[in-house]
Amino acid sequence: MDKYLIVLRRKTLLLLFILFSGIPLKAQSNFDAFVTTSAPINDVVEGTMFITLTDTNQIDLVEVKVGSKEGQADLANQQFTYDQTSGLPAGMSWQRLGYRVTISLGSFAYSDLQFGYVRLKNNSGVWSDIFAFVTN
Fold first, then answer.
1. Model-level pTM?
2. pLDDT number for residue 53
3. Residue 63: which of 82, 46, 47 has the closest Cα?
4. Which domains does the chain have, with CATH numbers?
5. Which of 1, 11, 17, 27: disulfide with 122, CB 3.0–4.6 Å?
């Protein structure tokens, strides 16, 4: 009977290993994001991206894109090293308080609609699904 349980346990562990070893681990994709803009001055606005994460572990990069049309990134297009607060392009800044990330995107052309795209890359090099949204 003991021999039977040992064989059963080994087969179960082998089966679990086979089932889960081929599944790539995604970066987290359960997060929320939106962008706000200042009042336009000479058709230029200041943009701020707000991202609420569900987990702050193992994030390497945050990619942010904002476009005036769906699928475009003509207003903002930047990858941020997670929690990097210095050495950012002019007009951009990064702040994180717990699970809430606030990114100043700098100035860009005014658009009635902003199509936003955010994705995260974990420290294993795997990208999350894209979180897409529209703001007006």
1. 0.75
2. 93
3. 82
4. 32-135 (2.60.40.10)
5. 27
